[in-house]
Amino acid sequence: MIDLIQKLQLKYPNISFAEGQVFRWSPSNQTITYVPTDTPESRWSLLHELGHGILEHKAYESDIELLQKEVAAWHEALELASQFDTVINTEHVQNCLDSYRDWLYRRSTCPNCSLQGIQTSSEQYTCLNCKHTWVVTSARFCRPYRRSQ
Predict the structure, then answer these.
(1) I need a surface site. Which of 26, 42, 58, 115 has the fewest CB within 10 A?
(2) Can you list the domains of the chain with their CATH numbers?
(3) pTM, full prediction
């Protein structure tokens, strides 16, 4: 992992790398936090976070925009992998994206009639079927609580 990080630092001097507990891109300080383990999955995650950095991903306005940014970052990671003698398992990529798709599906499911709604603000959905409105949490990595209004 250290060899890959050193190569990435040379090629992308405007991006910093810091050890941490999770893989994460921070647009505010242009830093990728990484878990210092050397497994194929950790290398893939590092390249994925670098994808966010290269694409200059910042905040997102809607849940679907977040999913689009995740797809774009994985696409960028797949492109980067060939430059750094790595092959990213596409099933791993789809599993990661499925976690976002599942999260989005749960958030957009109407608590009143169980059909899908549309996001009308960063924390609100409205059902297309029954017109019910509900609020969701702004957190990305927790259970998608839905509170009816």
Answers:
(1) 58
(2) 2-108 (3.30.2010), 114-149 (no CATH)
(3) 0.90
